[in-house]
Amino acid sequence: MAQVIADRRDIDFVLHEQLEVGNLSKSSKFAEFTKKTVDLIINEARNLAVKELLPLNKVGDEEGCKFEAGKVIVPESFQRVYDLFCEGEWLAMTEDPQWGGQGMPRTVALAASDYFNGANYPFIMYPGLTHGAGKLVESFGTDEQKKIFLKNMYTGKWTGTMLLTEPEAGSDVGALATTAVRNDDGTYSISGNKIFISSGEHDMVENIIHPVLARIEGAPEGTRGISLFLVPKFRVNKDGSLGEFNDVVCTGIEHKMGIHGNATCSLTLGGKGNCIGTLLGEENKGMKAMFLMMNEARALVGQQGFGCASASYLNALNYARQRVQGKHLLKMMDADAPNVPIIQHPDVRRMLIKMKSLIEGMRSLIYYHGNLDDLKNITDNADEKAKYQGMMELLTPIIKGYITDRAFDVCSEGIQVYGGYGFISEYPQEQLLRDCKITQIYEGTNGIQAMDLLGRKLGMNKGKPVMDLLGEMNKTIAAAKEAGLDDFAADFQAVVNKLGEVGMHMGTTAMSPKVLNAFAFAHPFMEVTGDVAVAWMLLWRASIAAQNMEKAKKKDQVFYEGQLKSAEYFIKAVLPVTLGKMNAILNNNGAAIDISEDAFGGK
Amino acid sequence: MAQVIADRRDIDFVLHEQLEVGNLSKSSKFAEFTKKTVDLIINEARNLAVKELLPLNKVGDEEGCKFEAGKVIVPESFQRVYDLFCEGEWLAMTEDPQWGGQGMPRTVALAASDYFNGANYPFIMYPGLTHGAGKLVESFGTDEQKKIFLKNMYTGKWTGTMLLTEPEAGSDVGALATTAVRNDDGTYSISGNKIFISSGEHDMVENIIHPVLARIEGAPEGTRGISLFLVPKFRVNKDGSLGEFNDVVCTGIEHKMGIHGNATCSLTLGGKGNCIGTLLGEENKGMKAMFLMMNEARALVGQQGFGCASASYLNALNYARQRVQGKHLLKMMDADAPNVPIIQHPDVRRMLIKMKSLIEGMRSLIYYHGNLDDLKNITDNADEKAKYQGMMELLTPIIKGYITDRAFDVCSEGIQVYGGYGFISEYPQEQLLRDCKITQIYEGTNGIQAMDLLGRKLGMNKGKPVMDLLGEMNKTIAAAKEAGLDDFAADFQAVVNKLGEVGMHMGTTAMSPKVLNAFAFAHPFMEVTGDVAVAWMLLWRASIAAQNMEKAKKKDQVFYEGQLKSAEYFIKAVLPVTLGKMNAILNNNGAAIDISEDAFGGK
């Protein structure tokens, strides 16, 4: 059975019918990205993903990365596909062509990435992290740093990483112990130990560029004293040629539950010789620089989780259509009734429509989040710019935290649909679940995302982004009524109103002596906010479907029917549960906080 | 950090304070199982589990089973521990001493198994399946079959399996194609291919006894024509010595997500020579025999999932107490505030109390289910016997389906508490999740369990078991009020009443033209029933805690505080969500059923 990745019809729907991405070409910035060009880009991305990336997914899982004599060896077949990916200029789709990017709208890049991440995201992490590291150089680098590093990174000649975590500094980045000592020539000698470094060492390219968080001698404790440095594996001469080894030593790789194709490295800097770095940005402003990158990095993780879920859904759907097992429920007593494909069984349909509605709502939400960035980039209106930026930041923890949580659920159901075969490595489903799991953890655990939503985003700019978001939801409600979906609109309106109430409750509780209770419900709060956001996207989709149904071709009508059913399922069978979750939040129960440490037991 | 398995104080609480298992010794059947004896048994089980089984868990996962030249080789260290387990007479704890059992109450055996399953359930599957196969021989075998096989199985000299599944007959057992041809001497020649056979082949014992489902030539199609046969790997002579190889050939083992220590085999019977079996029970009554065993087999799977969850919780708790990361939330702005163990962070506490309350509720439910069997076995009153049997059957899909679903959730949270370390194979958490996953699938997927609850158990005996169960819950409500827990009792009462309403709705819908809608909500119905059952157990526990708090020793008071907090959390923060799920069920939405197959997309 052929593996599948993402539903092209659905991608096109979001791009062209929901977000009307072709309109971006009216701006000078995106003038060349007409609908036709966009479609060609997605075609190319799909081809590369299906033909080249997808077949490597199992190879990466089974062969994994090997650590031998300080070197990391990736599966042999990775090299060719890495080169193809870079030749196709997919590494820095949204970036400035001056530096090797393609200047593409983020919305379009996300659609292309839908295929890449769904096909083989452990592999895509090599170029993906390179892009993120390059973005740091572009945003904070001196002209010289950019000249030396940037194009080589955006074209994939060199790869990049991100060195934050240390054994005693995980979620608490501020506890890091890596030090930087200023040399006479203005460079710094870095020393420390970093762990969990994705793509930290490998043999696909000649150099690896590490942005490193470290503390300059004498700098304050905590996050206020952290600076960002650029540390190449091999030093780079002024003419761009490679110099000597920079004492970035890989001391081992992790054996882990999933993403075996990506090397998770422990790195020692300056352990034996001299590890030289240059300051990236200002002294002691390293955390600020990281935070500026975080929207993008966290959104990327949301896409990774989503990619696993999208593939898991389509695999399950294919399997359910082909696997014949048991009679139809209405013909159980008829001895002569034939066995049927399991898609005809009610419980399998329940799993499939649950997966479908989540996939569709989450895809829209991811593209919408990217689209806000595009809209921000093409408007000259400062208020609009601020509005788009605010909504984007507000939605980031939802994209990362909520979507990866739900993606994991979808991958789990994707195994259940396969029954026993779902547990067997011969089939793709169990790997997708294992790979998906880390997306709930890295780039800030989902608990951290929930704290970000409650602690930073909810009250940001006196709540304006929240009000803006609720305002957009109300526009969708009006559109739904116009499309004749009054029943769905009314149900959704009630949930939006209640979300407002819950948000107010959380905001005031977080400012009260009951602040700990509030944070014990930060994660449930993220969950209900995400539920409402997905319902919003599905209602929006259904409104378009209802409006266009009559005049559509038969094949489109079937797709639109699917849109109406996804919305119906989510609104009628999921939102009642969301309301229950909101009631639990409003209860504001303190058991989790009040219980003494010893009473948790286990001693 | 030492790994842990199960909380002894909690086990003792359920055994002695909640179920008062010592009272069973008032019966002649269990006279020797006084409280003191019970405690000694649990001590021994714990010792064996902690010292011998637990250290092999990672070995089993990493070494796994090897398939070489038709033979399956288990990790070398398994043999010694298997022998120790059998010497300790743990294989058939509840069975008749005449056949090598220990005649132990099931409740006590479950407490011992709590340690075994939590320590290393992939290993325990070898003796566990042997016990199940032996039980079939005991229940349906002729005197001769018992004489030849039973004691050798219950003592673990030979192991057993269960040969049901075939490539085209998974959930639909009735589709199986294995045939049996009667020979002149009354034996049968069996031929067919079986897959997914746990412990199907290995090198720890000299013989393996396979109960096999097959169809006798000329028998009806479907489940009505299935018979059960006893097929040894090596034939057994009348004097008990081993005869020639019986042509049960292992053709391969599966590579799978978890339970690597247990060999999942494909077996071909009668492919080359002659595979001889003897009829076990009556012709064409094979499915009936299997169903009689199902309560026990399914409950065992619930325990396996629970074992993973119990270990995952205690590991997470230990980790949260020791891992220092970040400042206390109330001192975030204080630069001099020390970093604290993560158990002090609200979101970590939320995860821990969620895990704790589920573990405790599920442990009580599992023991309660076993206790019903004990109570049934010691009463002479036919009505009581029927009552206990009915409630046990009603709860079986909850024990298997609901508990393994929640166990998987707990294992997933258990990874989150560890952060990045949770994903690393050096730590126990990721294996527990992988091992846990199959418990949602085998012995009937959880979708099948939900259908069993709705289709068979809800209306069984005109709903008497349901009424009995609700009656028991009402007794607990009365006891809670007596203990001064009026608030909890009132909340729980409302949910029990609503469960009655939902049950009625499901029952009538399942008998109406909307039957497909009903079955599309079978799984949510199982979920809410399970939630209520867990809340019931927690309220019961809390009532005991409240009653005994004042006079208790300090250490017990802390434990009782934990009981009150678990109940409070579940009632105040989980049951509102359960009510939301019930509202979703009552909506009875048909989107999952009405959507056309094509509208699921993906084409």
Automatic annotation (TrEMBL), chains A, B:
Residue span, Acetyl-CoA dehydrogenase-like C-terminal domain: 469-595
Q: What GO cellular-component annotations does this UniProt entry give?
A: plasma membrane
Which top class of enzyme applies to this chain?
oxidoreductase
Show where the Acyl-CoA dehydrogenase/oxidase C-terminal domain sits.
Answer: 284-453
Residue intervals of the Acyl-CoA dehydrogenase/oxidase N-terminal domain = 41-157
Every Acyl-CoA oxidase/dehydrogenase middle domain range: 162-269
Is Manganese one of the keywords UniProt gives this record?
Answer: no
| Keywords recorded for this protein, A-Z | FAD, Flavoprotein, Oxidoreductase
In its UniProt record, a GO molecular function of this protein is: flavin adenine dinucleotide binding
Question: Entry's Pfam families?
Answer: Acyl-CoA_dh_1, Acyl-CoA_dh_C, Acyl-CoA_dh_M, Acyl-CoA_dh_N
As recorded in UniProt, its EC number(s) are 1.3.99.41
The protein's annotated catalytic reaction(s) are: 3-(methylsulfanyl)propanoyl-CoA + oxidized [electron-transfer flavoprotein] + H(+) = 3-(methylsulfanyl)acryloyl-CoA + reduced [electron-transfer flavoprotein]
Cofactor(s) needed: FAD
Database matches in InterPro entries:
Acyl-CoA_dh-like_C_dom, Acyl-CoA_Oxase/DH_mid-dom, Acyl-CoA_Oxase/DH_mid-dom_sf, AcylCo_DH-like_C, AcylCo_DH/oxidase_C, AcylCoA_DH/ox_N, AcylCoA_DH/ox_N_sf, AcylCoA_DH/oxidase_NM_dom_sf
Q: Which PANTHER family match?
A: ACYL-COA DEHYDROGENASE, BROAD-SPECIFICITY LINEAR ACYL-COA DEHYDROGENASE FADE5
The similarity annotation says: Belongs to the acyl-CoA dehydrogenase family.
Describe its assembly. Answer: Homotetramer.
Q: What does this protein do?
A: Involved in the assimilation of dimethylsulphoniopropionate (DMSP), an important compound in the fixation of carbon in marine phytoplankton, by mediating the conversion of 3-(methylthio)propanoyl-CoA (MMPA-CoA) to 3-(methylthio)acryloyl-CoA (MTA-CoA).
Q: What is this protein called?
A: 3-methylmercaptopropionyl-CoA dehydrogenase
